[in-house]
Amino acid sequence: MVGRSSLPEGSLFLGFDSSTQSLKATVLNNELIIVASDIVNFDSDLPHYKTEGGVYRDPADDGHIFSPTIMWVEAFELLLEKLKPKINFSKVVAISGSGQQHGSVYWKKGSHAVLSSLDPTKSLLSQLKDAFSTMDSPIWMDSSTTKQCREIESAVGGALELSKLTGSRAYERFTGPQIRKIYQTVPQVYDDTERISLVSSFMASILVGNYASIDETDGAGMNLMDINQRTWSKTVLEATAPGLEEKLGKLAPAYAVAGRIAPYFVERLQFDKNCLVIQWSGDNPNSLAGLTLNTPGDLAISLGTSDTVFGITAEAKPSLEGHVFPNPVEPDGYMVMLCYKNGSLTREDVRNSCAEKSWDVFNSYLEKTPPLNGGKLGFYYKDHEILPPLPVGFHRYIVENLNDVTSNNLVEREVEEFDPPSEVRAIIEGQLLSMRGHAERFGMPNPPKQIIATGGASSNERILHSIAQIFGCPVFTVQRPDSASLGAALRAAHGWLCNEEGSFVPISCMYQGSLEKTSLGAKLAVATGEGVEDKELLEKYTVLMRKRMEIERRLVEKIGRA
User: Which residues form the Carbohydrate kinase FGGY N-terminal domain (predicted)?
Assistant: First the structure.
């Protein structure tokens, strides 16, 4: 039987996660147990780039947010150096990775020759520093392409038509609108570009010394791929920019081999020349793999720089909000996802202004304020939000008559501020009520059978407690909050196995029946309350969630960006 026992004794599988604020690595052995990990934080480990949270914000162009492409190259070299004393690179039989979704890299004409003949006596930084037609990579936090989004939607017959075709309506952070903006505003950059990579395929390209394909799952986050055919959509390509298909290259399944590792890494770091590089994919798809999410009815909530809610489904039913991507570890299935831009950085802002810059104080406020927060509802947007499409701003309301759950006469009044403890609970409850409201509207299970929480804030027990109360289901956590790099290492092993077998094998065969013996198992963090009081609280949260969605709809009608 094919499975974990088929992985070679003593072999290692290396997974990377190139995220917004850092580059992480996780190494699994052939028993799928973590044996090493490390991280490079862009702001603190590479301070000469002067990024904040790994990004630059353009003061002259509202919503224009990007990262220096070359910083990711330097971080990659630094992380490999940090890993060198921890593992024997010659034992690594496969590598894969995760990239922040939607971010793009522009290789200038002639760069393939440089990439395919890297000199192992020189650094990557010195050899690739002039390989790009622009040094700035637009990333998922960017919201400066509203005009391009509307143009692309209009060209294909509207937002819903685009969603049916590609899995999502046009979103500012998606790569297609970003490419169109570059084509329109700096045409010389577009003309001088021979290949456009996503962050995921960019990092894979460095590893194989060749332009790696974009994988079908991450490719679905571009507004360019036909979600059902899993090929580039000629209709949308033409609506985006001329000659685009040639610059994108071919698509590949997420479990496919991108190539063998480049001679550069064999000679410089003593990797084995037969080490396989498995297609890299996006961070959310890799998290889905790392969380072993394979039951419809389960949801995952990732609490990171962005917050995401995702699950799996057998069929694609795109709508006007949320996203449908091909499932990275199940070729015939799909993953569904909601994404919020205001995640950990916005929580940190509230912590800094209301809780003495201390998570301990923040948590003590969460503990001493009652669930429902006396009806205090907050909307906190440090950055232009994706879901709902609202601009930067803060809105606070007090909802009255909440104690009568049968009442339809809930009234809200807007207020200027909350006291600090209420503000802390308001941001956590507000974010979670929004997730629940949009997840239900998108057709995700209600209530879910269980929620698996991941990302940095999933180590916060008070937040997990609120998730269980608001969603009305048990909450599990994984051993490591960095599920994207763990998922990438698992996908490296899975891709190696598929290649060895000569065809796709289900990823679950690698851990079925023995999940608890690996580093992939999840443990119960908060059980569902079964008492009368718990059920009454859930009913009240349901009423409050509906009220929040009603207020949100009015805000979008009044000041929404879409």
Answer: 13-288
**Domain spans of the chain?**
12-279, 344-450+526-559
**Whole-Å CA distances, 264 to 115, 123, 204, 232:** 10, 10, 14, 32
Spatial separation of the C-alpha atoms in residues 125 and 130, rounded to whole Å: 9
pTM: 0.94
Return d(Cα 83, Cα 144) in angstroms, integer: 37
In a 3-state reduction of DSSP, which class is residue 447? Answer: coil
Structure tokens at 152: 């692309």
pLDDT digits (tens, 9 = 90+) for 342-362: 999 999 999 999 999 999 999
Rg from Cα positions in the chain: 23
pLDDT at 1: 59
Judge whether 12-279 and 344-450+526-559 match in fold. Answer: yes
DSSP code at position 174: S
Can you point out the beta strands (E) in 315-440? 323-326, 334-340, 376-381, 393-400, 411-415
Distance CA 360, CA 371 (A): 19
Per residue, what are the HEC states of 102-152? CCEEEEECCHHHHHCCCCCCCCHHHHHCCCECCCEEECCCCCCCHHHHHHH
Confidence of residue 407 (pLDDT cuts 50, 70, 90): low
For residue 157, what are the contacts with CB-CB under 8 A and spacing of at least 6? none
Angle 181-185-186 from CA coordinates, rounded to 5°: 110
Domain 12-279: give its CATH architecture: 2-Layer Sandwich (3.30)
> How many CB atoms are closer than 10 A to CB 161?
15
Question: Which CATH topology does 344-450+526-559 take?
Answer: Nucleotidyltransferase; domain 5 (3.30.420)
Give the distance, in angstroms, between the CA of residue 285 and the centroid of all CA atoms in the same chain: 7
**Phi, psi angles (nearest 5°) of residue 36:** -165, 155
